[in-house]
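Need tokens for this chain, all 196 residues.
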Amino acid sequence: GRTMEHVKKAIQWGFTSVMIDASDYPLKENIRITKEVVAVAHDNNVSVEAELGHVPPKASDDISGFLTHPEEALEFVSETSIDALAVAIGTAHGHYKEVPVLDIDRLKKIRSIVDIPLVLHGGSGTPIKDVQETIKLGIRKINIGTELHQAYLDEVAAQVKARGGVYCPIDIFMHPVYERMKEVAKRKISQFAFRD
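Here are the structure tokens for all 196 residues:
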């Protein structure tokens, strides 16, 4: 979430981990907000992921201003006591117009000075070989929302077409949709659990 209210609701609903995204703010404000979230979450035995740098909403020609600076990552982690850090190294949310180019050297620098699990947002559509390389370098969580959303939408459309738009009990209608999403998840788990 982007606010303390989102985080508090998630904790009340029983989530065991939360993510605070204050990456749109300057570093000091991001640190302040994140520290407040960590205090509340850790008091409730809930882990915290936070973001530094910013994954743009879609691919852009100039992403340099969005990327995580290694020195800031060290300060951010030290000051906030977060449990995982989402870093911006060249991925984007949504569908890519072009294949993303990941800043692997930046990731190496961050990993060399930050000793907590790192997170890659914008993993959908990122070449698997590149994702596997980031895993070798400390990425421990990869967000793939767009691919799951697309599988959902594609299979809902297929079910509507197959049934000619005629009513069908939701459990029958949705079963193939869930199965399609499971296929995507299984494929990603297999790809992310590769062996060197």
